[in-house]
Fold this sequence. Notes:
A: Beta Polymerase, domain 2; Rossmann fold; B: Four Helix Bundle (Hemerythrin (Met), subunit A)
Amino acid sequence: MRTIVIGCNHRTASLGVRERLAFNTEGCIEALRAMRRTFPCAEGVLLSTCNRTELYVARPVHGHPRIEEAIEFLGTTRGIAIHEFGHSIYQHADTEAIRHLFRVAGSLDSMVLGESQVLSQVKAAFALAQSVGTVGRTLDAIFQHAFVVAKDLHTRTGISAGKTSVGGTAVDFARQIFSRFDDKTVLMIGAGQMGEATLHYLLEMRPKHVLLTNRTSDRAETLRAQLTVPHGTTCEVVSFEHLADHLARADIVISTTGANEPVLRHAALVGLPAQRQYRPLLIIDIAVPRDVDPEIGSLDNVFLYDIDDLQSVAEASIAAREKEIARCHEIIETHVAEFVASQRSRNIGPTIAALQQHFDEISRQELDWLLPKLVECSEHDRKLIIQMVHRITQKLLHAPSAALRDKAAASHANLYTDAIRNLFGLKDED
Amino acid sequence: MGWKHLISGFGTAGLLAATALAFLALARRREARRFYSTLAAGLVLIANVAALATGIVAHGPLDAMRDSFASSLLLTGLLVAVGLLAQRIPAMRGLDGVLFLFAGIMQFSAFFQIDRPTTDVTYNPWFISHQVAFALSATCFTVGGAAGAVYLLLYRLLRRKRALSLARRLPPLESLERVGRWMLMIGFPFLTYGVLTGFCQLSRQSDPGPWQWLVDPFIVVTLILWLVYALAVVAVWRLPRMRGPRAAALAAASLCLLVIVFVVLDHLSPLHR
């Protein structure tokens, strides 16, 4: 079998092209079904995320689709002419295709290096293709190995160390200060989009209370209605006028209002630590211009982080991850070499079996022709003739089978299997 | 040079190596270094336990523990054991290096306890519990002080928004504060018991006179230490202002005082024999 991948990603295609080539779940199912109808001998997995659309195909050596056919199929399925997206498409075959998938699953090809979301997306795409029935032995082996590679990269290197988003970094800070969250109160001031995203991260920690406050309570109410609050967490909208009282209750504050002046001023909060019994207070100010007077960060047990602090930490994480790239490539190369070697030895087996079957078939046909003509022959003689034919085929097959097994691990093993299949007119596997 | 010198020398070197490796593992995030740190500290612990066990088998538990060298080994062993435990407990991550460092200091001080003459006092049945109580309180206060030192480091890193990759490898501030608070609460009764048994013994002595202990540096500083820890207990539980960095600083400073008492003043004391 030959493996190919065609597709585009955030590096090769503009957002406009990516949008047009993107598939939703139903679209993926339809495309895979169409592929099964058009190329019945081929296997396929369609990966479509916001940053990439890729079609992984495994087909018999002389089968279809070829790379051009696969690109055409992709365009036809999405109703786009090739000249509109052809320049954005990359293509890889065999070992390169395997290497590419390992890089994608290990998030080395992602916009945010080391992010874990892409692995779930690859797993979901694979599961979807399995459910449609377009995954066979070849793609199954490659994708299963890709999942192992991704896990290996995440555990053996620092590629996923640290958070690269503002929300994730805020949670990292919270984890440095608090050991548990089920007794903590999160106060969100304002209803900005970035604040909401950060709140989603914090909700994953399952705090005890979430307090929402905004100058106009309607927006806070809307936000509360939209929030998916985990079990055991209570969420309430509180009045903006009593902000100081809520601050005394809160352990984590996210401020994200659109105010032009600071909402929390140092002079008004000097007594806050005493009021809070000197419990630690984490303030995350994501607003621009800032909502929190920077002087508040000097109060006892108050930890204040603004958007620049969070972004610089996220960027430092990205820089640290980039240092791990070389190690990741080494690990991927080892896996690619292992996988390709195992696949080559696995491909030899079916060729030998097909050769054996071919010889057996010829023997059977000749015996079927000969034996009815030997009327005088005893049963014992007939058995001897059958045995002799079998022994001849076995002896004839021994040398080529042994040679094929010897070449199994060699890089040119495919040449031998292709030659044998062509010389003896053997059908491609699957 | 006897086997006690060897144990002290080997133990001090081993614990200093364990300390360095633990700090390097923390700073550079290399698990192999933590393994070697565990190995070095583990070997010292085995050597100390073996030395203690040999003494107990040879002389019986009471006579063995009358030896000041044995009580130094006991204290070091306790610190190393807690340090090894700290490597396994997430809430105590990063405390191992500080604990090994103090264990190393204690092991070094054991040099000066070798062949220290014993007096009649050591034959008092209360003496053993006095020794053990001080060893336990010192262990608790060392853990608390280590937690305090790490708390101060993490507090500084988080407030200054620097070296956050190092901060990620330390336990949360809340855990460190909890460890410090509990160690204080557990250690203080042992310290009080140790001080009381010491005074009981002093009151029974005719020589020197009843108030002579007021000029003994070890006893005076031990009393100050007890007072500091008593204030710390009250402060941490009753005064909210003393929470967080202030409590951590107090625990770390008290630990320094504790080391001065046990390592330096013990040798300058004419009474504490």
